[in-house]
């Protein structure tokens, strides 16, 4: 079966150039042209390598890379950027990218890097299943379905994303600001109260006794913490 490659790039000509050449080299391609669609694409985790542009409408490739790694996505990530400063390179690698290619690039070099990354990755463990299970509840991050106190339901995008963030940060304190940045993005901050309302909703779904939460707990003055067992 052909390896599938996910591309997130807003410049149409670059995206098409990369896609056409990779297809010609025998890969399957899935693509997105902005940050939000890129996140949705990465959450599916049905690809073997991702090529992410740094500057995207709605966000950046660094945050996308962190998002993919938070989800347990272990495939190689190659970042594309017009920037040639080492600062961007360091940020990309810190965020969990494997390689970095400044634009403009030679397509043959891109193909060679893709081949090398896939070769190196073939020894890595497969992507973790995109599923959280705890205390008789479960959440599927690929479909958004969840088994809750209300039976099997479809979580909203924000509810699902909150559970993804909690799952990726189990036993770690998360401030409201952390959650706002991770779930709502940097450009569209709702109020802290929005976060609290979503937490109340998640407790109704995922706490044996929502009045006395043991999984999504409040850390007074610090935010919230998720733990799968009390
Ligand atoms: Ca761009």
Give the topology, please.
Elements: E1 4-8, H1 12-24, E2 28-32, H2 35-44, E3 49-53, E4 55-56, E5 59-60, H3 61-70, E6 77-81, H4 86-95, E7 99-102, H5 107-121, E8 131-134, E9 137-140, E10 145-148, E11 151-154, H6 157-168, H7 176-184, H8 192-206, E12 216-219, E13 223-226
Parallel strand pairs: 1-2, 1-3, 3-6, 6-7
Antiparallel strand pairs: 4-5, 8-9, 9-10, 10-11, 12-13
Helix pairs in contact: 2-3, 6-7
Bound molecules: calcium ion.
Brief descriptors of the model:
single chain; 8 helices; four-stranded antiparallel sheet; Rossmann fold; Arc Repressor Mutant, subunit A; 2 domains; 230 residues; alpha/beta
Molecular structure report:
With 230 residues, the chain is an alpha/beta fold. The protein folds into 2 domains: 119 residues, Response regulator (Rossmann fold, 3-Layer(aba) Sandwich), CATH 3.40.50; 96 residues, Winged helix-like DNA-binding domain superfamily/Winged helix DNA-binding domain (Arc Repressor Mutant, subunit A, Orthogonal Bundle), CATH 1.10.10.10. The chain has 8 helices and 13 strands. Strands 2-1-3-6-7 form a 5-stranded parallel sheet, sandwiched between helices. The protein is elongated. The model has no long low-confidence stretch (mean pLDDT 88). Calcium ion (CA) binds next to β4.
């Amino acid at each position: 079966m052909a390896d599938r490659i996910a591309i997130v790039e807003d410049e149409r000509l670059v995206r098409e150039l990369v896609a056409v050449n990779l297809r010609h080299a025998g890969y399957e391609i899935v693509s997105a042209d902005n940050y939000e669609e890129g996140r949705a694409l990465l959450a599916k985790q049905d690809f073997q390598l991702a090529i992410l542009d740094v500057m995207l409408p709605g966000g950046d490739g660094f945050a996308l890379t962190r998002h993919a790694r938070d989800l347990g996505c272990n495939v190689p990530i190659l970042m594309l950027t017009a920037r040639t400063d080492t600062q961007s390179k360091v940020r990309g690698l810190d965020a969990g990218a494997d390689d970095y290619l400044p634009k403009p690039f030679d397509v043959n070099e891109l193909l060679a890097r893709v081949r090398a990354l896939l070769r190196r990755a073939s020894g890595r463990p497969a992507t973790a299943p995109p599923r959280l299970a705890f205390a008789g509840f479960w959440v599927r991050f690929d479909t958004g379905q969840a088994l809750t106190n209300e039976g099997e339901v479809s979580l909203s995008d924000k509810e699902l994303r909150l559970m993804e963030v909690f799952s990726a940060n189990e036993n770690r304190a998360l401030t409201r600001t952390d959650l706002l940045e991770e779930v709502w993005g940097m450009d569209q901050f709702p109020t802290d109260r929005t976060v609290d309302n979503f937490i109340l909703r998640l407790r109704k779904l995922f706490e044996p006794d929502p009045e006395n939460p043991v999984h999504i707990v409040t850390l007074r003055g610090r935010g919230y913490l998720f733990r799968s067992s009390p």
